[in-house]
Amino acid sequence: MEDKILSPILLKSKLISERQLSELAKEAQSRKTTLYRLILEKNLASDEKLGALIAKHFGVPFVQLRKITISKEILNIIPEMTARSRMAIAFARGKEGLKVALANPEDLETIEFIRKKTGDEVISHYATPRDIEDVFRRYQKDIQKEFAKLIEESAVLTKGRPAEVPIIKIVDLMLSYGDQNRASDVHIEPKEEESLIRYRIDGILHDVATLPKEIHPEIITRIKVMANLRTDEHQAAQDGKLIFRTGAGLPKEQQTKLDVRVSVMPTTHGEKVVLRLLSARVRQLSFEDMGFEEGDLKKIRWAYDKPYGMILATGPTGSGKTTTMYAVLKVLNKRDVNITTIEDPVEYDMEGVNQIQVNPKTNLTFAQGLRSIVRQDPDIILVGEIRDPETANIAVNAAMTGHLLLSTMHANDAATSIIRLLDMGVEPFLVASTVNVIIAQRLVRMLCQNCRKKEQVLAANLKERLPEDAVERYLGKGEKVTIWTAQGCPLCQQTGYADRIGIHEVLLEDDDIRQAIIERKDAEAIQRMAIEKGMTTMLENGLKKVAKGTTTVEEILRATKE
């Protein structure tokens, strides 16, 4: 979507003011991005709302591809490379013609191209670029067959192994397939007789393929080369990172950039590699996409609008804490502020932000790095994690002296984070006066909107597993209540779930909670006080999403059990 087309649509809808548009246009130009992507980044509108406005402007129907099933037969009418290069997806066919979703409904050249190729009348619909990009993963092939095909085509077998196996293509296929399937991690595990490839998708590990054990060392070497790791070291753990672009042969702006964290570990059967895939898609997530309720968002906005103090995200590993902190940074990232981060490792590259990687070999720890950052005249500081008393005390003092400090911690809930800071030796009055807001969170799998099923269940059965008042407040007071359950379809690969969303509790400090901290009251008392003042717990936030059909009771219980 070109900026010159989108600008008048935004103004006419009164979504933003002329002044805001001017500022956004300048920022988009300086960051070499589009107005459309910046609007999503800044959480000024959801992808769905923008899509509806743009479709109305063009006078064509708006379609949300992620909510419909597209048969392989229909999808393949437009080949994958053509679909990617022209941003066009065939999604339905009828007597009236072929329905095609386009990122630009006025692209007459593409419409005519499809009409000539298919012989069908083309019925144009508008779909957002993000929605179209998400459909590309439906073109995916069976990765095991693709691996076998690459190996078979490579060369004649010599002494039981291929002479010239295309290792580069195999590694590229692993990464591309992982990105298409929204995998967060790729595991390459050496077994006694084979090499096992596993993907973590929506928090669950899946076995997806096996490869001959003979080529496992070459795959590991290829990854080490890409990540600038030592190829002659096989007995020690190594960590690194690499950048990979999917969609080879496409224009650069249509390729997906993957920041990949690499971890190599020796095992009894050889070296195991875990690749953490950090897609640019994650960086484009808005607070709405991440599952924040409007009431919680108001608290977070109040906290980040202050020029000083601390914003903490807390939860276990893999709960999306860093993604939440980066969502805040995206909003605050402007040319007139100095933002510096210290992380281990740097997870997302962010333009306009000074990012520092922790390096124990040079004594660049969180604490040492934070000391140096404070002398660099920062306005906003992100500390990857507060994990020791020294870092905690320096962070609190930085927040006291006029800096806005963002960080993450490992704690079960928001109130427990306060106790953790006190246990690290931070004085109660400092915690009370510096912490603006604490966001506790978990990730739960979202129900596939295509195949989810509405069911009536006995309320009594739910009350055995959930607080009785919570069931009645969020799911209903009758003998039976309505919930949605997972089923399974080709769209979600028979899992019943597609993607993940956050459940949150947001604790905003006020005078009473500050006094409770100074008096060293326990986490339970602080939690109870926050709930009395209107804080929604993670469990309650999850049940709200259950009532909306976003997720299931089982997912909420899995995520919130301690």
What can you see in these coordinates?
There is one protein chain. The chain has 562 residues and is an alpha/beta fold. It has three domains: 3-135, GMP Synthetase, Chain A, domain 3 (2-Layer Sandwich); 140-282, Beta-Lactamase (2-Layer Sandwich); 294-560, 3-Layer(aba) Sandwich (Rossmann fold), CATH 3.40.50. The chain has 24 helices and 20 strands. Strands 14-13-15-16-12-17-20 form a seven-stranded mixed sheet, with helices on both faces. The chain has a six-stranded antiparallel sheet with strand order 8-7-6-11-10-9. The longest helix is centred in the first third of the chain and has 14 residues, at 18-31. It starts with a helix and ends with a helix. The mean pLDDT is 88.
Features:
562 residues, alpha/beta, GMP Synthetase, Chain A, domain 3, Beta-Lactamase, Rossmann fold, 7-stranded mixed sheet, 6-stranded antiparallel sheet, 24 helices, globular
What layout of secondary structure does this protein have?
Blueprint: H1 3-12, H2 18-31, H3 35-41, H4 47-58, H5 72-75, H6 80-86, E1 88-94, E2 97-102, H7 108-118, E3 122-126, H8 129-135, H9 143-154, E4 157-158, E5 161-162, H10 167-180, E6 183-190, E7 194-201, E8 204-212, H11 216-226, E9 238-246, E10 256-267, E11 270-279, H12 280-283, H13 294-305, E12 309-314, H14 321-332, E13 339-343, E14 354-357, H15 366-374, E15 380-383, H16 389-400, E16 404-409, H17 414-423, H18 428-434, E17 435-447, E18 453-458, H19 459-463, H20 468-474, E19 480-485, E20 497-508, H21 511-518, H22 523-532, H23 538-547, H24 553-560
